[in-house]
Amino acid sequence: MTQVAGVPSSRRVLAKLNGSWHRNALRIFLFVTIAHWAEHLVQAYQIWVLGWPRPQARGILGQFYPWLVTSEWLHYGYAIVMLVFLAVLRRGFTGRALTWWTVALAIQFWHHIEHLLLLIQSQSHSYLFGSAVPTSILQLVLPRVELHLFYNSIVFVPMVIAMYLHVRPAPAEQARMTCSCGGHAGVPDLAPQAG
């Protein structure tokens, strides 16, 4: 690992991700999250509005690449990416925004556990609860499409609340911020200006 002035490069990257790069990292993360959530919404629309059979309701990308919908590795990989980015970008938050971001992180941690269970079952061909297919714990209560739409929604909502509060910090929160998202230190605010 390379070092500059005694600071490991990974620590410098973390500091930048929660400092000068925080705004853009959040924007990219939000875009990826919305794109993923949109896929779940399209899949739900295909089932509930268009009346498609569940195996044919694969979202947008799944229509062109059907293996995306059935790949437990891909779903688990996305769950890990979400978990990592929620954890890594957490340091840039303060106050109320930090509380909401932590809620999203905690929910995503459980969502990741559910995907880990699905991945282990798909690899071992040993299914929980006497099921014929990989089954997560809460899938016993909700069908898989609805469950993952629910999971993505309950992670997304506190994440967006956190971002909203983050770009509109209270004075005490802004004083503790390490990034320019709240407009301190003469840096323009991420939030749209009124007027």
Describe it.
With 195 residues, the protein is an all-alpha fold. The protein has one domain. The chain is 62% helix and 2% strand. It has eight helices and two strands; from the N terminus they run E-E-H-H-H-H-H-H-H-H. The protein has a two-stranded antiparallel ribbon. Strand 1 (3-4) and strand 2 form a beta hairpin. Helix 5 (72-88) runs antiparallel to helix 6 (95-124). The longest helix has 30 residues, at 95-124. It is elongated and about 55 Å long. The model is unreliable at 184-195 (pLDDT under 50). Keywords: Membrane, Transmembrane, Transmembrane helix. The chain crosses the membrane at residues 73-90, 97-113, 149-167.
User: How many strand segments?
Assistant: 2
Question: Strand fraction band?
Answer: under 5%
Category by helix and strand content: mainly alpha
Question: Count of DSSP helices?
Answer: 8
**Share in helix:** 55-70%
Transmembrane segments: 73-90, 97-113, 149-167
Keywords: Membrane, Transmembrane, Transmembrane helix
Topology:
Blueprint lengths: L2 E2 L2 E2 H9 L4 H27 L12 H4 L2 H4 L1 H17 L6 H30 L19 H24 L3 H6 L19
Outline:
The chain has 195 residues and is mainly alpha-helical. The chain is built from 8 helices and 2 strands; from the N terminus they run ββαααααααα. 62% of the residues lie in helices and 2% in strands.
Could you list some keywords that capture this structure?
single chain, 195 residues, mainly alpha, two-stranded antiparallel sheet
